TrEMBL record:
Entries under Pfam families matching the protein: DUF4166
Protein source organism: Bradyrhizobium lablabi
Domain of life according to the entry: Bacteria
Protein name: DUF4166 domain-containing protein
Domain (DUF4166): residue spans on this chain: 37-216
Source lineage: Bacteria, Pseudomonadati, Pseudomonadota, Alphaproteobacteria, Hyphomicrobiales
Amino acid sequence: MASTRVPRFPATPASNTILLDDRRFHNLLPDEEWGRLPLAIWRRFSKRFADGETVVYVGTVEEASFSRAGWWLAQLARVIGGPLPTGAETGVPMVVAVTEDAASGGQIWTRMCARSNGFPQVIHSAKRFAGPTGLEEYVGYGISMALLISVEHEALVFRSVGYSLQIGPLRLPLPPWLTPGDLTVTHSDLGGGTFRFSLDIVHPRFGKLIRQSAVFMEAAS
């Protein structure tokens, strides 16, 4: 595993950024559970930017691993736009940009992972506050997953609870054999203005397929 190096310079949001109170994530949890979050995470997920504005976080990939099945899954997922990490290199920069989406009232996420040799990987997705759990993530070609959030060990945890395919007005649940398994994203605070995002995908038959973890610096506001 690479060291937990963090960037020297914190990223900043766009100039003239307008900050708004945001209860979109808070509303998905009971007040008691939300109150168990560290103050830094509470503030991070209660800060909303004006529509169309972007905040950028700069970090470093700390850990990345694939099982054989996980590596093949990541390559096959390129057919729908490459929503999964494809490289196991650590110690390389990662940049995450979050843009407020005026059309849906959600967020557009862009993740760029550098490589020491070769072209960087860019992953696009969109979070929408809708669906059976109140939060969905669209990863491309009409494919989305419903996310359930919880607080565990003072971390904010996002878990997939079902995948679907949208074709025009139709929304079709995907059978388990067409999905990668259970996806978990964990946001944990490290103190000193740094935090960790971890991604884990575990298949009920093949076990842990993919893990990626990166450490970021808090963006200035």
